Amino acid sequence: MKFGRELASQMVQEWQAAYVDYQGLKKLLKSHVTLGNDPELSSSSSSPLPPEVSQSRSLKRRITLYRAFSGFNNLRGSPKKADEEVILVSSVQQEGSDRNYYQTMFLRSSDEGGEIEVEFFRKLDEEFNKVVKFYSEKVEQVKAEADVFTKQMNALIALRIIVDKPSTELGQIWRILGLMWFWGFIHNAQVDCAHLIQKRNVDRSWIQEVEMSSEGDDVMAKRNKDFKPASLDVLDHVKINVEPDAPASTLRNMVGSSKSDLSYSKDELTKAEMQLRHALTEFYQQLRLLKSYCFMNVLTFSKIMKKYDKITSRSASSAYLQTVDKSCLGTSDEVNRIMARIEATFVKYFANGNRRKGMKSLKPGHKRDKHRTTFFLGLFTGCSIALVAAIMVSLHVRALLDPEERTKYMESIFQLYSLFGFIVLHMLMYGVDTFLWRRYRVNYPFIFGFRPGTELGFREIFLLASGLSVLSLVAVLSNLDMEMDPDTKEYSTLTELVPLTLVLVVFMITFCPFNIIYRSSRYFLIRCVWHCLCAPLYKVTLPDFFLADQLTSHVQSLRGLLFYGYYYFFGDFTTRSNGFLTKSKYYHIMYIVVAIIPYWSRFLQCLRRLIEEKDNNQAVNAFKYFSTVVALVMRTIFSQKKKAPSAMFWKIMATSTSGFTTIFNTYWDIVVDWGLMQRNSRNPWLRDKLLISNKAVYFVAIVVNMLLRLVWMQLVLDFQISFLHPKGMVALIACLEILRRGMWNFFRVENEHFNNVGKYRAFKTVPLPFHYEDEKIM
Q: Is 71 within the bounds of a domain?
């Protein structure tokens, strides 16, 4: 792999603007004329060299074979002479800052082609100073954060002492050791002591203080005297941060402060430990990113200078790389020291001294692609294709396309299985999005907040989608068997329960507590759905409102779940009859309620963000979702009262509200969510930074999004296709909306990625458990 590609794959994408512009420097070197700065020789890199030049280079190589051997240990070669110096690198301290500014003087500017080399070193200095500045600022930030974590650990240790009361426990341990030592049963004393320590959950730092072998009473007394517990005075200046992480705590803190006095309870200690453990893990990941940033940039300078020496036949890399080594990139060791302290602290206080366990938490493993995933993906995909072909053949053989049978099937069975079609289609679109995000190096696991190593790749998503499609298609094929009793006109109960069984199987797999079928991802989805349902009682994060946006495109899926409930529990599913639904007043009400749930959830989420973030855009966004709720209600009422005398009134209301919300939502999609239509950007009418180099893709996406937004107007205009059943038309429109949402997802996450890049935001900010009233307290 070429270094340019390796650098692109290893860099922190959110910091990519702060890395050395390797490609730009490489482009400058390519413009340099390699052989004697002769423009005729450089005009075509593919043209063969003249015979005299080729003979000269061959002679030069032969002469080097007779040069004196410099030895194996003299890796740097012979010392340079004064007249061989090419560059002179100097550092000047900036006014009002401790940071040095590096500047290179090229000593051979009079040579032919020297102007290009002067330009090269000018750009190289710009990149070097940029990297040094960024790295220095980040090091200062992590040093300040390390001081904050020191205060947090002091408070945690003091809280542990008060809650666990180690003095009493230690006294019991010392008395047991003294008595057992007196009787000579030292081994048994160690066993009993270890059992008591494990039973009482004493901190390992105290365990080390009481580990005894064959020491006498004097030694024990001396070690007990040397033991100095942490100071408890720090707790006099500390409050605990109470973050509303549940509906009850949110309601409790609506009238109170988010910071409260310590109650010195066991639950409080456990919560503080978990919160600080999570914060230390994220801080350690930040240090790892910073260390990787330093290493990759130093390596980039080494690569580009070696390339310079090779192209220009000069020896300037040694002098410049010495300057790089003497800068903060090569001399700063704060990051390594802080990382070592974090590791020791985490292992001691959060892993009970088990270094392997502690480092596994600090350094989560990378996700690896498995061959069995690809195998089963191909297997399920092939089975799905075969089942689709079998269903089509069965439809023709059993004459199920006749008008009478088709109507009965579309009114009942089709509505039951269309739910799974919507889910599979959405999963396929999400898999395509994941593939594109990974291809264009979008850090979607960080954006969505996935735990490292647990995010699903496109292969896993396609595997789940193909597996669900196989189950659904097998169930559809079983329901095509028309086992109807000619006397009672009823179908087989066992066959008609297949769709309900399939729904129960999917729910059982989703809520399965065992560590199978991507449990962490399933629980992440369940938690986000719960947060959406409980809005605004949970703090709104990007995964929560992103999922709520997905649910707004699944109105027909939610109505499908409602249909399941009424079809199996309030109707006669053995006759495949659903005429009772048109007469049920409660069904009509619930038909509207379940459709507005995702929009109402987003409306409440926007209100909470408006209160917490004081962002006026959230008020406009909330109004957008409220207007969508109104339009949805108007459309639904109109569809239910098409034959009523007031049908024209409801049609006018549905048309006007739907037209307004369609324009509003389209504008918000393109301008706010995608960040496009910026007139003065580097890419006119798009935005400054784009993932896809072909700009036409964005304009096509804008047009397609507008057209698919207008498709929902079909429910108001009520136009039909002759060969398509009305239920099929509704399903088709729902599928088009899911396709639009899949396209929206890619550009929405792309815009979020560039927002993170613009702010160099590559890690999460985790709230800390303790709040110091007096910041001077250490």
A: no
